[in-house]
Amino acid sequence: MYRTTVIIDGMHCPMCESQVKGLIRKLYPNASLSAAHKKGLLSIEYPFIPSQAEIKKALESGGYQVKSFSTEKFEKKPSLFARLFHSFKTA
Can you tell me which residues the record assigns to a coiled coil (predicted)? Predict the structure, then answer.
């Protein structure tokens, strides 16, 4: 999995967070998204590295300005339910 963090200018409220996530969800419907308007951050977790050009174009169409991108590879840890289920399965 890859986590792309986008620093955005123009998010002022929780509604802006929702709008930003909606713009990206159109591009990557299965991505895990989180946004923080106070910090101006959008986090995209996806199995592939998302296109910076596509993200920038989508966000700018919504009136937001992209300041920077950073992408890192990470291993997604199994959820609590998955760990519990696995422990019952192996017992």
Answer: none
